[in-house]
Specification:
23 strands, nine-stranded mixed beta sheet, globular, four-stranded parallel beta sheet, alpha/beta
Length: about 600
């Protein structure tokens, strides 16, 4: 905010265009922010001491200490981290508003890239030696056992060969190598969190360690590795739907993975209708009008407040991005004010009202899932569900249609939510989840093996008929960028013998505009595909439902699994276009509006 070229002054927000001094800007901006219900400065905010708003700087400690993609297990890593921490925290020494430090931003715990990078390094790199030892010990020095899970690269025929530079391993279809990769991810994350924690405790013992601002997604093993090493877990977040819905699995899962308060270190809403000329050129949350923006952003704040582990929310950002985009090309209407210093009155009014409600909502919040009932209730859909609109706007009752009883083996947690509703003409479903995947990590020839793709299964017994369907997220090469992939949802019928048959009508399933690692899909199963002419209130159905990540990394089942299999449950189609009793009790803990 305090610098920029003449060109930037013309096309972006620049304080000297509107204020005679930084102090004048700080006084007016702080007055505005307090009046809109904000009480903290987030990452990259101006650290001026002319403001009394508390401050959380982002210092890129891991990047500057070369903990990522270099050699975090080197013997001198702690000394290097401490030295960098001294330099990076010096500008904030004795700052009266300092709360703590974000150690990095959206570095991400990308499992397979970390594995591939360190395995391909030279033997002199200590982190490669850690990985080699983990592989050797996991497979008990038996190369034949490693080959069950991995396909070696050229000239790699033994554990000794893995010591070479440019050594490589790819996942073997049907193997369990992804679990070995996750173990190494956890080790890298634990080392990182230990180093930045210890360094900050040495140089800034009174500042909170605020985490590394997870990138709109989290790796569960990395979060587990942060236990005891962060005072606050920070995560950036892209709201799930334009109406401000926040998928509960995300924050409920964090509450089970780590005993630390969560700060949403970045969230945003943009609108195509704006005064700065922003075009919103990407998948980040944007809607058509400022009125929709105000409604969605305020609803999101209320939803965030309903999670007891969420301690605060930082809006990104104070002003719109410059007309034509910032230096990396991102061009979004994210501001509370436009580039001309004029507030978006509808937005700030809605946020002021939502922020005023936060204490009451948060005081009533609870991670409270009712017991799995003997008979599930599937509510009627309030309106017809469309699978050709790339939107979930036709699901007005998201809280009431959610099935909160998914399980996975400890210490992991469910990685998504599934919502079900019915109409006389069929059953509707949507699924929001997360799964980072490196699609180049799999060794295969020909079509992509369905066994390694992301799968969502639903098995229904209607009357005497049992039908099993699977939505499979199949990667395919991008038509323009051959090294990239597109994710194409495909609907299959699954036979009693486990064979897959592509369903003729692929318009029944749609993927929403959320790139990996975000999973977002919608499905409609006509009654005729379930063996019935129509569905009716009071009808009982048998239900099995489960989802499996890419490479079979993890499976979550509706209800407790038995030897990895989803149980068969009984569900009744209720007449109410809303929640059943159990879901209403859950929503009263803070999930609804």
């Amino acid at each position: 905010m305090s610098g920029g070229s003449k060109t930037y002054r013309e096309r972006g927000y620049y304080f000297e265009n509107y204020y005679p001094s930084l102090a004048a800007w700080a006084a007016d901006t702080q007055k505005r922010l307090y009046s809109w219900g904000f009480n903290t400065r987030g990452g990259w905010s101006d650290p001026t001491r002319d403001m009394t708003l508390p401050l959380v700087p982002e210092i890129d400690l891991g990047r500057n200490a070369r903990l990522h993609w270099f050699d975090p297990f080197a013997p001198d890593a702690l000394a290097a981290t401490v030295a960098k921490a001294k330099v990076l925290t010096a500008p904030y020494k004795d700052h009266p508003g300092l709360i703590g430090y974000f150690t990095d931003n959206e570095v991400g715990w990308w499992n397979a890239p970390l594995f591939r990078w360190y395995l391909g390094n030279e033997w002199a790199i200590y982190s490669k030696r850690v990985l080699w030892r983990m592989l050797h010990d996991h497979y008990q020095g038996r190369w034949d056992r490693l080959l069950v899970d991995f396909v070696p690269g050229p000239d790699i025929h033994s554990f000794e060969d893995l010591k070479k530079g440019r050594a490589s391993l790819k996942l073997r279809p049907g193997g369990q190598g992804i679990h070995m990769i996750q173990r190494f991810t956890a080790a890298c994350a634990r080392r990182y969190y230990q180093l930045v924690h210890d360094a900050l405790r040495q140089v800034a013992p009174h500042a909170l360690v605020m985490g590394d601002r997870l990138p709109l997604y989290y790796n569960q093993d990395a979060v587990l590795a942060a236990r005891g090493l962060v005072d606050v877990l920070s995560t950036n977040y892209n709201v799930d739907t334009p109406d401000g819905w926040v998928a509960p699995y995300y924050f409920d899962g964090l509450a089970r993975l780590i005993d630390a308060p969560v700060l949403i270190s970045e969230f945003f809403f943009a609108a195509n209708e704006n005064r700065s000329g922003n075009v919103n050129n990407g998948h980040l949350m944007h809607v058509a009008t400022q009125a929709e923006r105000a409604v969605g952003a305020a609803a999101a704040v209320r939803h965030f407040a309903a999670f007891p582990n969420v301690a605060g929310v930082h809006w990104f950002q104070y002003s719109d991005e410059p007309t034509g985009g910032r230096s990396d090309g991102e061009d979004f209407n994210m501001g509370l004010v436009d580039i001309h210093n004029q507030p978006y009155e509808g937005l700030v009014r809605a946020l002021r009202q939502a922020n005023a409600m936060v204490p009451v909502i948060h005081a009533a919040s609870a991670h409270k899932t009712p017991p799995l009932p003997a008979e599930l209730s599937i509510p009627a859909a309030a309106q017809a569900v469309r699978t050709n609109d790339t939107s979930l706007a036709d699901w007005p009752d998201k809280a009431g249609t959610r099935l909160p009883w998914f399980t996975v083996p400890a210490p992991h947690v469910p990685f998504g939510d599934v919502h079900l509703a019915w109409r006389p003409e069929g059953l509707a479903l949507f699924h929001l989840a997360q799964n980072y995947v490196d699609l180049n990590m799999l060794a295969y020839d020909g079509p992509y093996p369905l066994s390694e793709a992301y799968q969502l299964h639903i098995e229904l017994t209607v009357g005497a008929e049992t039908r099993h369907y699977m939505v499979c997220l199949v990667p395919r090469p991008h038509p323009v960028y051959p090294k990239r992939f597109e994710i194409d949802p495909k609907l299959y019928a699954v036979g009693p013998d486990g064979t897959y048959t592509l369903v003729d009508d692929q318009s029944l399933v749609q993927g929403l505009d959320k790139p990996l690692p975000h999973i977002a899909l919608e499905l409609f199963l006509p009654a005729k595909l379930l063996g019935a002419d129509k569905l009716a209130a009071g009808q009982k159905v048998g239900l099995r439902l489960w989802a499996t990540m890419f490479y079979r990394e993890m499976t979550m089942t509706l209800g407790p699994s038995h030897q990895g299999q989803a149980p068969k449950l009984t569900a009744i189609l209720t007449a109410d276009a809303g929640t059943g009793k159990a879901e209403r009790e859950d929503a009263s803990g803070g999930r609804g509006e």
